[in-house]
Structure formats: C-alpha cells, structure tokens
Automatic annotation (TrEMBL):
It catalyses: 3-amino-2-oxopropyl phosphate + 1-deoxy-D-xylulose 5-phosphate = pyridoxine 5'-phosphate + phosphate + 2 H2O + H(+). The record marks E155 as: Transition state stabilizer. It is found in: Cytoplasm. Pathway: Cofactor biosynthesis; pyridoxine 5'-phosphate biosynthesis; pyridoxine 5'-phosphate from D-erythrose 4-phosphate: step 5/5. The keyword Cytoplasm applies. Belongs to the PNP synthase family. This is Pyridoxine 5'-phosphate synthase. The gene is pdxJ. 1-deoxy-D-xylulose 5-phosphate binds at D13, H14, R49, H54, T104.
Length: 247
C-alpha cells in the first residue's frame, strides 16, 4: 500500500514571539507565511493564545490576505476564540488545551472529560464549514471521545515522543512512537484524518513521517529556530525533504 501524501503545515507563532520581544513589527509573521507558500509548504498554522504572547488578532486577517495557503487556527475552547474563528473563517480550527502559565502546550486536550464543553464549540465551527480538529494524546479514550464529537481530524501531540528523543530514552521513544502509529491507524480506520505535531525536529521527524496514515505534520518552533541560521526557506525545504524521504 502506498502511503497518503504527507502535508507540512508550518506554525509561524514564534516569528511573532521574536517580533513581540521588541514591541514593533519586525520580524513579521506574514512575511514568514509568504515564504512558506513560496517554498511549497502546504499550510500555515497559528495559535492565537488567550494571552496573545505571540500571534495577535490582527495577524490572522493579514496572514489570510497574504497567502492562499489554508490557515489552521489553533484555539482554546472558549467563547472568545469561537467568535474569532467565526469572524475569520479559517480553513481549519484545531482545539488545543491552554494554561496561561504553561511555557508551551504540555499535553493533549481532555476530549473525553470535556465532552459537554467541547460539543457546542465543535458543532458551531463545523456548522459554519470550518474543518475541526482536536489536539489530543494518542490514546484510545481520547480518540473515542473525538469520534463521539464527530470531528473529521485529530492531531496527535508528539511532545512526549520529542522529549523521549531529546533524553535519549529509547524504550520510551519506541513506546511513544508505537502509540502514535497505533492510534493513527485506528483513527484512519474510523474515518478520522490523523495529523501530528509538537516538538518535531530534523532529528526526530522521520519515524513519525513514516506512519502511513498520517496526512499532516504541523511544525513550528524548530523551523523558526533553524531559520535563524539557514533562513526559513531552506529550513522548510529541508524538513520537507526529510518527510518525503521517510515516506
Ligand atoms: C498547540 C501547539 O503545539 C502549538 O500551538 C505550538 O507549540 C505553539 O507554540 P507555544 O505552545 O510555544 O505557544
Ligand atoms: N500543533 C503543533 C504545532 O503547531 C507546532 O508545534 P511546535 O513545532 O512549535 O512544537
């Protein structure tokens, strides 16, 4: 069986982090989105955090106007974010868990424990034609909950996998990889399109990219960091090559 094509969504949040460090307008995440489009990235991901620590409201419209690439808006499950999503109508909305004090998204969304909170938000987005995705751990209980919510897409949080790789813990790494592979197969079998992302790098991306059912990887922090040394275009191109080789 030939695996599905694997899309690369580039998360440009941390271009905005650098911009915000000085309060001006440089570097502009919109310019990053244009560069991603020019080198064949498949989509732009942007997380409008409740505390606006990187992407800001005004960036969304500017990103949408600057490129034709589909925008995947990462958002917390709140009324405020729902309203913003409905105003901007991104191609996709990925519901993520959010804690103000966290350094980054530390785990997956508890879709199983929050069905009643998530359901009206998921349905409202879906009824307005936005492709809804849930950012969850690769775990059967969470996948079941995603099925019950009727979402077309889940994105598996690869943070634990990335930590295991960083720490050189090969046993944990194999375990994490297996659960992402198993849950990707189960999602696809049940008609949900599996995506993955968080903490992916040149060094750890290939085993994930080789999972045949995965349709999209969303990668940001590492690419923006690497862009400091080689430029964003080259960083995206190289990531794309590694993903294609792994396929
Ligand atoms: C949900 C997720 O994983 C992304 O939004 C990404 O990591 C954004 O960066 P921060 O988590 O650092 O805000
Ligand atoms: N959903 C994951 C994402 O968009 C990118 O995460 P990271 O590569 O910035 O860790």
């Amino acid at each position: 069986m030939r695996p599905n094509p694997l899309r690369l969504g580039v998360n440009i949040d941390h271009v905005a982090t650098i911009r915000n460090a000085r309060g001006g307008d440089h570097p502009d995440p919109v310019r990053a989105a244009e560069l991603v489009a020019s080198v064949g990235g498949d989509g732009i991901t942007a997380h409008l955090r409740e505390d606006r620590r990187h992407i800001r409201d005004a960036d969304l419209k500017r990103i949408q106007e600057a490129t034709d690439l589909p925008l995947n808006l990462e958002m917390a499950a709140t009324e405020e974010m729902l309203e913003i999503a409905l105003k901007h109508m991104p191609h996709a909305a990925c519901i993520v868990p959010e804690k103000r004090e966290e350094r980054t998204t530390e785990g997956g969304l508890d879709a199983a424990g929050q069905h009643n909170t998530l359901a009206p938000i998921v349905w409202k987005l879906r009824d307005n034609g936005i492709r809804v995705s849930l950012f969850i751990e690769a775990d059967e209980r969470q996948l079941d909950a995603a099925l019950r919510l009727g979402v077309p897409v889940v994105e598996f949080h690869t943070g634990e996998y990335a930590h295991a790789h960083l720490e050189g813990d090969s046993e944990r790494l194999s375990r994490e990889l297996k659960r992402i592979a198993d849950m990707s197969a189960l999602a696809a079998k049940n008609g949900i399109e599996p995506h993955a992302g968080h903490g992916l790098t040149y060094e750890n991306v290939q085993p994930i990219a080789a999972i045949p059912q995965l349709a999209e990887l969303n990668i940001g922090h590492y690419l923006v960091g690497e862009a400091v040394f080689v430029g964003l275009e080259q960083a995206v191109r190289h990531m794309r090559e590694l993903m294609d080789d792994a396929r």
